[in-house]
Amino acid sequence: MLPSKVVRKKAGRFVPVLLAGLILAACTGQTPQAPSVDIQGPAMGTSDYYLQQVQQSPNDNKADWQLLAIRALLNEGKYPQAGQQINQLPQSLSDTQRLELQLLTAQLRLGGQDVANAQGILAKLDPSAMSKDQQRRYYGLKIAASQGRPSLDLLRALIAQEPLLADKAHQDNIDATWQALLQLPPEQMNSLVINADENTLQGWLDLLNIYKANRSEPDMLKNGIRDWQVRYPQNPAAKNLPGALSQLQNYQPASAGRIALLLPLNGQAQIFAGAIQKGFFDAKNGVLNVVSAPGSAQDPIALNDDGDDAAENPDAPQDGGGDRPADAVVSPAAAPVDAADGDASEPQAAQAAPQEAVPAPAAAAPAGSVEVKVYDTSSQPVQQVIAQALQDGATLVVGPLLKNNVQQVADGSTPLNVLALNEPENIQNHPNLCYFALSPEDEARDAAHHIWQQGKRMPLLLVPRSSLGNRVSKAFAQQWQQLGGDTVLQQSFGSTAELKRGINSGAGISLSGTPIAPAVSEPQSVTIAGLTIPAPQQSGAAESAAATGSGGSVDAVYIVATQSELQLIKPMIAMRISSRSSVALYASSRSFQAGTGTDFRLEMEGLQFSDIPLLSGANPALMQQAARSFNNDYSLVRLYAMGIDAWTLANHFSEIRQVPGYRIEGNTGQLSATEQCVINRKLTWSQYRQGQVVPAS
């Protein structure tokens, strides 16, 4: 037996050799580790990478790689390939895999515009069983499936998604929540029932109430928001206000100071400029501030031709109205106006004020120290006129009136605030520029809102076969689809003689038409919290809707016609539908004239029509005075009302430009501004009922 010392010595010699052998064995025997798979977490790879892993992975985690590949394919918009991969998944999946598959299937359905099936899948899922990333995608899918239609469910999805987001996606969520609140239909707002533990939703609703109560008083609104932030410190909007409301922090009221009024004082548009100029100076000089009794809409007076079109493009030939020639009212030769010279600050038109005047629905700002100087845009380029106004010390420009001049102002640059009296073809968003116009398109957009709010969902437009009809149809269809509507049908009619031949033959007018393709940009994908969903596309229902026959699914008809045309169109519709039909009829102000007799009003029973408040009986005394001033030419009365509202807007330019949702009760409508500061007008709607004109119900 060897001594212990010898044994220890020999063992010591073998230790390094043994360690080296073990290390070498480990190195030579090691196989590459497969990448980890987590289907519940973010998927950062491309579809090609995940599909490669599917080919290389063992069977025990192949389905996980397939699910990640499907998610990547969907995010890349490769829907057919994603569908193929779903079909290749094994039948036996774990609960975790099955949950992920349901999320992906809902996303695939949305990509294929199968919204109903996507909503059905999502309704069956329990978000509490999901990971944070899956919850973020789940709520993103629910938001996308709402297709922009505001509802309590949409609000709840946005609120639940908010804590799962960061950075820009988080702010986008807050802005989207605010927009959904603003767009919530009144009937839903009035019937909201929320749970006792929905503190965040309650906070949002209180913020909305504060905004609605104070939106016309910027300082009070700012104070109300600060108080709300103290009461709801945990609400996400208390820490990050919606973008629209955060602008209030920088709100700075500005005095009009000296106003430059830019109008064409010579040429075809002179007569229109004179009416606007008179309204502007009547408001400035305070002749509207005599208090009168409240008005009534029982006997409104309205335009008897295309006054709106005249305001939109005053130097263009106008469509005829009634039985008169096209230029009987709106042509400058019909009623010459004594316009002031370009340097005059008190035009003759303004001096011919009515002896007894009453206030406009909106309280116009007092003249005070505000100076107004009129500049003629028909004698020199508009940029030179603005440069001269700036040199003269102007702080705000009202005008120009003609569309091409407005386009030049939008294309150029000026340090002055500008309230343009028209809209260019392509709106440009400048922080010192607003657009105020009276146009048929503006009236059509308001009609779309009104008809939508009355619960109608399949409108037909009856419009003249002309550029006017095409413009109105496109504006209506664009607004309708923004509200969440689908197909809008259009049917064009010809001259009065054609309509008479149709009624004599007993043909009538069927409630059918061709789908309108509004002039909008190509649909783009929408990304919600990293989840990409294609923009909604028109379904095949549009084509089938074109064949809709008499009394089919059409439930509303919007008619743009003169009074004489409407007298033929309404009975022609009645020829083709049952007297018990629920189809509602609406008309633009083009068809309504002053002095209509009882017989006409009885013939129009049930028909609703829109007009500006001044011509709808909101202020009868002012309306009558204005009508006398313009020899009952109500197209000029409409422009006179525009001049009054232009003065009010000029004195509230800072609010209308900077305070989101700021509203003015004007003579041409309830005025508010879009984000691009295009002034929208909510018109007054009336209805023929038992030979009377009453407010529409």
TrEMBL record:
Membrane topology of this protein: Lipid-anchor
Any one GO BP annotation for this protein: regulation of cell shape
A Pfam family per the record: LppC
Assigned GO CC terms: periplasmic side of cell outer membrane
Keyword entries, A-Z: Cell outer membrane, Cell shape, Lipoprotein, Membrane, Palmitate, Peptidoglycan synthesis, Signal
Ranges of biased composition (kind: Low complexity): 327-339, 345-364
Signal peptide region: 1-25
InterPro entries, sorted: LpoA (IPR007443), Peripla_BP_I (IPR028082), TPR-like_helical_dom_sf (IPR011990)
Cellular localization per UniProt: Cell outer membrane
Oligomeric form and interacting partners: Interacts with PBP1a.
Function: Regulator of peptidoglycan synthesis that is essential for the function of penicillin-binding protein 1A (PBP1a).
Family, similarity comment: Belongs to the LpoA family.
PANTHER family: PENICILLIN-BINDING PROTEIN ACTIVATOR LPOA (PTHR38038:SF1)
Protein name: Penicillin-binding protein activator LpoA
